[in-house]
Every structure is written in structure tokens, then in C-alpha cells.
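This is your field. Have a critical look at both lines of this record:
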Amino acid sequence: MADWSSARLFSTDGIESKADARRRSTEALMAAMAAAPTAGRALLGALGVRADGRTSIESYVNVPLGRIRADGLVVARKSRSEVKVAFVVRAANERLTAAAVKKVRDAAADNGVDALVTITGESTGPDLGRGRSPIPVGHWPWGNVLTALVDQKVRDPEQARILGDLVAFLQHPDVGVASGSSDMGPDWADVLKTARTSRLSARNAGVADVARRWDQVARTVGTALGTAIDLDVQLSLPAR
């Protein structure tokens, strides 16, 4: 039995491209948010969506919004009210442009969607400028999604199984979600050089972005370690 592979709900067999990895990771996440509503409600809560035990969650993929399609859509229903959240998803190292996000955002607003979320390997989403947005636009780095899933304390064994298999799927190298979080961004070389040759300041260009990326790398490593040793791993940061 030591050489046997555990059967997983989300298979990584046959992934041939980034587009395929993106479609599978999107569908796996959307399905898990509905099938494990404890985690789904927690993730939506990070967006400011009020969701409790009476909130039901439905999830869809490749949703038409006029001529534009959203990669995913979640509907959170409670009593007579509902909130619709659309998702634009990219696998690790896939580029997401501001123009692409704006097209989905505007189509989502025109079709009664309440909010849009981008999910990429980047620590921040594309800069949409200072113009007034028709709906709120949030961003989830894949590393933060993984951390949030691992941090969920789910008592229901079926939901726990779904979340565990989802984390294992997203951490697989063929999916490429976790591996993309090691990219320190275009400013890394300049920030590293400045740190070695002079006193680095928060005012230096790129420092904030590098710091965000480093935090994401640390969280991803902690998540992978916690999964491997089956213990709760927490980041310990100095007060400075």
C-alpha cells in the first residue's frame, strides 16, 4: 500500500497547457466553494460579502455576460437576497491585462453582477486606473487562496475531504498555481542591488511590490509545509 496513489476528486492527469491548467483550477475552485460552503462563505467574506450558515452557494464556469465570458461565477443566496460575484482567472505566470479585466467588469455590471474578482499568481491585480468602477473589483493571489483553504477548520468530513483534495490539486506542479508565486517581479533585481549597496528605504521604487511578493512566497511555503507534515504552520514575523 505504500506505493499506492490516493484517489483524488480533482485529477491532474492530462494537463497539457496553461489554458488547460487554468480551466481545471477554475472549475475545481468554483466546485469546492459550492460543495464545501464553509470555505466558500469564508472566501466570499474576504470580499465583504455577508455570508453565514444560512447562505447557500451556487457556482458556475464559463459564464456568458453578453459577448464576454467570465471564467467563473458564484451566487450567494440568503433568504430573498442574492449576491453574484464573477471571476477572471489566470494560471501562474499567465499575464492578465487591465484591458481584459475592464471588458469583463463592464459586461458583468451590465448583466447584474455585483462584484468581480481576479485570481492570478501576481500579488496584486492589474492597475485599472482612477476612473470610477461600475462594480467593486477585488484580487486574490493564488498563494492567498491556498493559505485560506488550508486555514479552514472544517468539521464536516466530506467538506474537509473536498478542501484537502483541492489543495493537493492546486499544489501539483502540472497545475502551476503554487510554483508561480516564486516570481519576485520586475523590481526584484534593483531592490536587491540597492539593499546590498546602500540603505534601502520604503520610498525606493518597487519595495512595496517586492515585500508583497515575499509575503506571498512565505505563505505558499508555509502552506506546502503544513500540508506535508499535517500540522498548522503559521508565519512568525518580527515586529520591525
